[in-house]
Amino acid sequence: MRDFLDWQIGLHGKVDEVNQRLLLAIQTDQEELYRMAKYTIEAGGKRFRPLLTILAYEISSDAPYSKILDLAAGYELIHTASLIHDDIIDNAATRRGRPTLNNVDGVANAIVVGDYLFAKAYELGSRYGTRVSKIMADASSRLAEGQTLEAFSLGNLELSEETYMEIISNKTARFFEACAMGATEAAKAGKDLSLALSNFAYNLGMAFQVTDDILDIVGDAGKLGKPTFTDIRHSAITLPLIDTLRKSGADTRKELKEKLLRGDDESVDIDLKNLMVETGAIDYSFTVAKKFSEKALDSLKNTGKSPDLNLLMELAMIVIERIEELS
Ligand code: GRG
To answer: What is the pLDDT of residues 217-275, one digit of tens each?
Structure first.
């Protein structure tokens, strides 16, 4: 089965080029600021967003992808900044298999590094003109909206599937979409191609986030490189839980709510995981993720054929296959 690493090999060194551009972008004479920003960048990550940006650009333009590296790096910097701030909010101790910046250098410094990365990202985006800058800024606003809606929905066991979709759309999918939109805008692509790639990216983002939320329950912490059941522990309500509550009878629902309110007990994790599997909520969530992946693939059906398009299509499948690979 293919995984992200196999997939990245097919990109022939683009990940390394993104990494080099990121390090260039965060240069400053302020040594501590550079050290902290570099620490976060070097922790790695899948580099999904910049790779999506590059592939969308290559599909839409005859120019070399070196022309879009700054924008690709800009998107990754915004993503990284939002993760730094997210780790502060969650008081998270590890991320990408390393101690978080807030853990190493404290919350105050981590806030500033996040702000610094945001500033650098918008500078990179501005090199592509006002339209691209606006796409980037709008995507960041959506991140803040998604984060806030999620924060104010914590512990709300009545949360609807619709509101959950709104959260993940803003938190993840709109940002993926913006990568494709920014790239096609920079490439001056035609409307149809631009729309096809943006729709692809949006649905890929939705599939990715639903899968991520499933893996938080059924994933293997060792293979994932992060603890599982973090959503439940933070009272974040995701699709598997929404569907479990929907499918349970009144008694189980009551019991479940009491258990969740009691919180941080490992037996709750196991019981809840079993319940989510037994009620079919995991299967349901997987079906939803698959539908988004199929929609993503469908968006590209009239776009012709190219090695880059094949890579995008593979990505939409790998996102779904992660469930088997990482659980
Ligand atoms: C942007 C103004 C502004 C505010 C930020 C904190 C915050 C507000 C937003 C955070 C939103 C958030 C946590 C989104 C999660 C997105 C997500 C899917 C993260 C995981 O992405 P991966 O798996 O991570 O691509 P790696 O580590 O591989 O890069």
So the answer is: 998 877 777 778 888 888 899 999 999 999 988 888 888 777 777 765 666 777 788 88
Q: What is the mean pLDDT of residues 310-317?
A: 94
Gap from CA of 248 to ligand 1 centroid (Å) = 31
Beta bridge partners of 95: 98
CA–CA distance, 290 with 284 (Å, rounded to integer): 10
Q: Which atom of ligand 1 is nearest to the CA of 89?
A: 6
Q: Is the CB of 234 under 6 A from ligand 1?
A: no
Contacts with 55 (C-beta within 8 Å, 6 or more apart), sequence order: 308, 311, 312
End-to-end CA distance of the chain: 14
Which atom from ligand 1 is nearest to the alpha carbon of 146? 11
Cα distance between residue 145 and residue 114, in whole Å? 17
Residues 6+ apart with CB under 8 A from 27: 34
Q: pLDDT tens, 17-49?
A: 999 999 999 999 999 999 999 999 999 889 999
CB of 236 closer than 6 A to ligand 1?
no
Q: Which of 76-90, 251-265, 292-306 is least confident?
A: 251-265
State whether the beta carbon of 96 lies less than 6 angstroms from ligand 1: yes
Distance 79 CA to ligand 1 centre (A): 5
Q: Is 46 in the pocket of ligand 1 (CB under 6 A)?
A: yes
